């Protein structure tokens, strides 16, 4: 998923929305949620906890695209590919397959694909079961607004009008389509269609080097495909920490991936049993398959938003403030359809905040400075807090430290040679204000830094906490110790 931010369009407040009272009106409040993804189903659970009558309208399946076609299946595929990259260090660790040299492994793609799809379906079923157990009404169909206080659900049985005191729009987004590279589901694909493949592509051309493109390029390279990554920018992952992105690109190339930087794709066409991708400078890249990963567009068409008084931006995203309110009283929005930050964790928090606010519970506005994000390449890139460029530009008076993982004793034992920990602190206060972790399971290692930021801990407080010896998290404590004298 891409990392996109937008400026809130309504004033921030912790007071309940107009027309919705506090705890005395929670019981019996009618909440209708359009969209059963992370933003929608998490909101539904909170609303039920607060005593509201809740109905979720979902057309695809509980969990939405995040569970069925995006986050869950893609990270399952990536987890399998990661096992293939781990074997790179097998020989150095003294491990050899009994039948031959180290690294002689291959993926049974039919098994991989079946597991990916079965896990996604199982997760969707678990979410549905949880919602039903909590008393949430579920409607299989498409929802649209009928003014600001009702939803029309179109189902196989006809239309159903659902009156609402509170409406949450959590309709997500879908892959952007280039008119010159329209997916056919067989050779030219978007990321929701990859799971229809029955074998590893012989030569996969990935158009787009953002988070989605880089993750799939790395995964299929690990699974044995010949991969060409087409990037219109100077480097892969242009929105990430430059040092982290440079390391990932170096790893990609070392593993045999062809990275075409500053190469904009003009179009893709199917040619027989393969594809051709034409670049803007006239070059043509040939492959067996092409993945188009050039961002996403919000699913906001057909929702009758204008009639409900809900404003959208020029890009089609629903405008919200930091407590998830739209421009219509009693109507909230969460997730990728808002364009705030395209992460499942943010969608879920937006949905929870919407219910806490609308139903009169205690609530804190969304704070993006506390959001941790992860790129599931191998190694992973995890980030939280302010980026380094805000310090180097002088915008923030901060101190920076960078420690390589290779000198960590646990990393040596595990054969980890690449990766690092960065930590940023405020020079005046010593507060931890940001961090970057690059390495295996960086998504787990970023959590201590996230906790430090969200609880306003100083580097001295972080460094005084015990870590296990040996452990990769020891480098985080060491980074904090190196910032001890960085005030001034």
UniProtKB/TrEMBL annotation:
<feature type="binding site">
    <location>
        <begin position="208"/>
        <end position="215"/>
    </location>
    <ligand>
        <name>NAD(+)</name>
    </ligand>
</feature>
<dbReference type="Pfam" id="PF02852">
    <property type="entry name" value="Pyr_redox_dim"/>
</dbReference>
<dbReference type="InterPro" id="IPR036188">
    <property type="entry name" value="FAD/NAD-bd_sf"/>
</dbReference>
<dbReference type="InterPro" id="IPR016156">
    <property type="entry name" value="FAD/NAD-linked_Rdtase_dimer_sf"/>
</dbReference>
<keyword id="KW-0560">Oxidoreductase</keyword>
<protein>
    <recommendedName>
        <fullName>NAD(P)H dehydrogenase (quinone)</fullName>
        <ecNumber>1.6.5.2</ecNumber>
    </recommendedName>
</protein>
<comment type="subunit">
    <text>Homotetramer.</text>
</comment>
<feature type="binding site">
    <location>
        <position position="143"/>
    </location>
    <ligand>
        <name>FAD</name>
    </ligand>
</feature>
<dbReference type="InterPro" id="IPR004099">
    <property type="entry name" value="Pyr_nucl-diS_OxRdtase_dimer"/>
</dbReference>
<keyword id="KW-0285">Flavoprotein</keyword>
<comment type="similarity">
    <text>Belongs to the class-I pyridine nucleotide-disulfide oxidoreductase family.</text>
</comment>
<feature type="domain" description="FAD/NAD(P)-binding">
    <location>
        <begin position="30"/>
        <end position="351"/>
    </location>
</feature>
<feature type="binding site">
    <location>
        <position position="336"/>
    </location>
    <ligand>
        <name>FAD</name>
    </ligand>
</feature>
<dbReference type="GO" id="GO:0003955">
    <property type="term" value="F:NAD(P)H dehydrogenase (quinone) activity"/>
</dbReference>
<dbReference type="InterPro" id="IPR023753">
    <property type="entry name" value="FAD/NAD-binding_dom"/>
</dbReference>
<feature type="compositionally biased region" description="Low complexity">
    <location>
        <begin position="1"/>
        <end position="14"/>
    </location>
</feature>
<dbReference type="Pfam" id="PF07992">
    <property type="entry name" value="Pyr_redox_2"/>
</dbReference>
<dbReference type="GO" id="GO:0050660">
    <property type="term" value="F:flavin adenine dinucleotide binding"/>
</dbReference>
<keyword id="KW-0274">FAD</keyword>
<feature type="region of interest" description="Disordered">
    <location>
        <begin position="1"/>
        <end position="29"/>
    </location>
</feature>
<keyword id="KW-0520">NAD</keyword>
<feature type="binding site">
    <location>
        <position position="295"/>
    </location>
    <ligand>
        <name>NAD(+)</name>
    </ligand>
</feature>
<keyword id="KW-0547">Nucleotide-binding</keyword>
<feature type="domain" description="Pyridine nucleotide-disulphide oxidoreductase dimerisation">
    <location>
        <begin position="373"/>
        <end position="479"/>
    </location>
</feature>
<feature type="binding site">
    <location>
        <position position="75"/>
    </location>
    <ligand>
        <name>FAD</name>
    </ligand>
</feature>
<dbReference type="InterPro" id="IPR001100">
    <property type="entry name" value="Pyr_nuc-diS_OxRdtase"/>
</dbReference>
């Amino acid at each position: 998923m891409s990392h996109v931010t937008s400026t809130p369009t309504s004033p921030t407040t912790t007071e309940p929305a107009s027309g919705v009272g506090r705890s005395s009106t929670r019981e019996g409040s009618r909440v209708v949620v359009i969209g059963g993804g992370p933003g929608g189903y998490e909101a539904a659970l909170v609303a039920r906890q607060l005593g509201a009558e809740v109905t979720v309208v979902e057309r695809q399946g509980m969990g939405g695209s995040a569970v069925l076609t995006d986050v869950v299946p893609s990270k399952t595929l990536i987890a399998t590919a990661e096992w293939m990259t781990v074997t790179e260090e097998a020989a150095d660790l003294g491990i050899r397959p009994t039948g031959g040299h180290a690294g002689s492994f291959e993926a049974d793609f039919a098994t991989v694909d079946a597991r990916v799809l079965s896990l996604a379906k199982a997760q969707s079923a678990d979410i549905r079961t949880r919602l039903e157990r909590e008393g949430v009404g579920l409607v299989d169909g498409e929802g649209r607004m009928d003014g600001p206080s009702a939803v029309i659900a179109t189902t196989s049985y006809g239309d159903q009008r659902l009156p609402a005191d509170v409406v949450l729009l959590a309709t997500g987004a879908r892959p952007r389509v280039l008119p010159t590279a329209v997916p056919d589901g067989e050779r030219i694909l978007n990321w929701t269609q990859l799971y229809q493949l029955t074998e590893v592509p012989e030569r996969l051309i990935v158009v787009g080097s953002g988070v989605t493109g880089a993750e799939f390029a790395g995964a299929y390279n690990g699974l044995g495909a010949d991969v060409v990554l087409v990037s219109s920018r100077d480097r892969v992952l242009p929105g990430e920490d430059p040092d982290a992105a440079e390391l990932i690109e170096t790893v990609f190339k070392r593993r045999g991936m062809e990275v075409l930087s500053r190469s904009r794709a003009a179009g893709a066409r199917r040619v027989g049993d393969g594809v051709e991708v034409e670049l803007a400078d006239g070059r043509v890249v040939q492959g067996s398959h092409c993945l188009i990963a050039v961002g996403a567009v919000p699913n906001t068409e057909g929702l009758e938003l204008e009639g409900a008084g809900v404003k959208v931006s020029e890009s089609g995203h629903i405008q919200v403030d930091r407590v998830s309110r739209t421009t219509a009283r009693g109507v909230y929005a969460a997730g990728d359809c808002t364009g705030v930050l395209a992460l499942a964790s943010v969608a879920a928090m937006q949905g929870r905040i919407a219910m806490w606010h609308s139903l009169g519970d205690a609530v804190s506005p969304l704070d993006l400075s506390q959001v941790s994000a992860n790129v599931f390449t191998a190694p992973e890139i995890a980030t939280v807090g302010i980026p380094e460029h805000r310090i180097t530009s002088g915008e923030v008076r901060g101190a920076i430290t960078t420690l390589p993982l290779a000198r960590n004793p646990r990393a040596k034992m595990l054969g980890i040679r690449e990766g690092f920990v960065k930590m940023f602190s405020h020079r005046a206060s010593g507060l931890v204000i940001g961090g970057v972790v690059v390495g295996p399971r960086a998504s787990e290692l970023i959590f201590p830094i996230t906790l430090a930021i969200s609880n306003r801990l100083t580097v001295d407080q972080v460094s005084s906490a015990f870590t296990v010896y040996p452990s990769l998290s020891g480098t985080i404590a060491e980074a904090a110790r190196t910032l001890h004298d960085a005030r001034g």
